[in-house]
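PT: before anyone asks, these are the final sequences, not the draft ones from last week. 515 residues across everything. Please model them as a single complex and drop the result in this thread when it's through.
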Amino acid sequence: MESEFLTTMALTFKLAAVTTLILLIIAIPLASFLVFSKIRFKSIIETIVSMPLVLPPSVLGFYLLLAFSPASAIGSFLTEHGIRLAFSFEGLVVGSVLFSLPFMVHPIQSALSQVPLSIIEASYTLGKSKIETMVKVILPTIRHGLISGIILAFAHTVGEFGVILMIGGNIPGETRVASIAIYDEVESLNYAMAHQYALTLFVVTFSILLLVYTLNKKSLGEIK
Amino acid sequence: MILVNVTKRLNTAEGAINAHFELSINDSEFLTLFGPSGVGKTTLMRMIAGLEKPDSGVIVVDGDVWFDSSQKINLPPQNRSIGFVFQDYALFPTMTVRENLLFAAETTDQRHNVDELIELVELTALSNRLPSTLSGGQKQRVALARALVRHPKILLLDEPLSALDPSMRQKLQDELSLIHSRLGVTTLLVSHDIAETVKLSDRLAVIELGRIKRICPPMEFFSPQTLSGKLQLIGEVLKIEEDFPAFIITLLVGSSVVRTVVSSTEASALCIGGRAIISSKAFNPILIPLS
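LR: through. Structure below.
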């Protein structure tokens, strides 16, 4: 029982860590695009990014399940290449990345929009390329946004339930994460175990959020 | 020698206009772009820096083509030898004073020069401070020093002193003048401050709505020789009061308020907020030193 608890918690945090890393890589260029680009259909992309905030997780999970099934075009393409996303850890990562996207993109986007254009231009006039400017000037300037994004995306993935239930099911060691385990333990009237999972998640998410607020206050004080 | 001949469509308060700027800047010259806001001074400077693209024309610096619309040449700002000082200083907030300058340095020589530049702008004691802990004048000095690190062919100053209080402004004007004479870097300044312009520039390019109206030494423009007055002051009309049969005009000259009597014909040519020259003949001015 105890080892199952540990396996499930490890899987939960592994999923959150992998998801957060992938999100960080996607979100920086995506947020830069949303802030700096002037093309017309930008608001459509902005809407798609924000959709998971209002969409019931089961809706997203349902469509992902349809997309992953070998009967669909995407699913059959993936199956041909030996990739199975439905009821697998990889599938959970894809679902979590989509579902936590706004939690990573929004803080980065709002931090980027506050970066004065003149410091970017100043870097260009000092001979620095766009990439060097991004890495050495912009990213350090928006670090509190990056930290908020990382922590929020991580915490949100840890707490995700609906999407995972739809596309992952409840396979121990593969797709069984803490939030699913709580549901499962309650169903089988095993309240002590459910409580163990629930309290762990409660403490972890509380500490994470507390960290965000402390860090944000600190780094804001530094800049001002 | 810097040659600029560019056109650009500008959106101004009076609608869109086709701006056309043509000027040449001599080596080591201090040239000021003078005029009211919204006439294209900053745009011209940004086009020279490569931060904005002219619609057509050429920009040639010491024989190197930076922009030529007919040959489709448009060097990015990274490849132009410029030092740009922004109105809002544009210091990198996460780097200390010294790191801001080191970031600009490309060669070992330039890196070694950083401390010398910090000393030149009197910031040695503050070199490990973050920009957020500096005053406006100190920030502007860092920005100036940073723009000089790469030994640019041209230093571009976009109203660098406009956000500072008058005494700090004067101090920085003196410093700017000193640095210019010491380093001899060709400098282009955007300004609408008369005192600053007269104090610093060798020549003045007067800009009016997308055109360079006149290029001349500053005194020739501000103190035209057509009047034979012994004493001439330029002021801004604050108030026009009728006191039959004459008018009393209140003007702001520098920081003092001056009242003078004029005839009704003279008064009709004046308007509140406009500029006027007070010229006085046939008397010997008395100068009393102020302690």
